[in-house]
Amino acid sequence: MGLKEFDFVDTWLNRPASDWSLKRISILQSKIEKYTYKLYNMNKFGRQNLSKLVPTHLILQFANESFGFNGWSSEIVSFSITDIKVANPSNDNNSTINSKDKVSHTNKIMGQESTINDCANEDQVMITVFAESKIIVTLKDGTKTDSIGFGTGTMSSKGLALAKAKKESVSNGLKWAFLNFKNLLDEHEIKIKSKFYKDGLYGTVSR
């Protein structure tokens, strides 16, 4: 099915753009539910949202099987560093570096001004970067969903810690964006029953 067969409106964020996306999202959900059912039968995770336990690589595998490798795309809308901590693991009494051992300076990381405290002896320092990313997943018919992902990176190098935190936050955001398609389906069904849509089920486009 080519893109020309779809009608587009300005935005389809959290709303299905065609019958194709409804069917494909349902396939994705069935794959996720089948996996979480196995987790449920293991009787070791208690009462919680089991979908969050599905590994990201499996979510991506399910997405490719449901939408096709060329049926979806993702975009990093924003990325930010939420916190930076510097610790001295060799100090058993206090993992935070004492102020007298710190040399404060300002670095620009990803276009942001972040004050980082470095120890005079960098071999004893572990730097933890906390980051978050906003990810949008767009299906080929224009249907979109988004989510915020969080990540942390603890390394002896600021650059490596930042890279690890960013990679983890993007991966986490991508996973939850796909999981949010379930909410899209649920809300769509409620809106249909309440006759919420005034422009037709998938919008009206003049030809």
Automatic annotation (TrEMBL):
The keyword DNA repair applies. GO terms for cellular component: nucleus. The keyword DNA repair applies. It comes from the Eukaryota. It holds the Pfam family Rad52_Rad22. GO terms for biological process: double-strand break repair via homologous recombination; double-strand break repair via single-strand annealing; mitotic recombination. Keywords: DNA damage, DNA recombination, DNA repair. InterPro entries: Rad52_fam, Rad52_Rad59_Rad22, Rad52_Rad59_Rad22_sf. Belongs to the RAD52 family. This is Related to DNA repair protein RAD59.
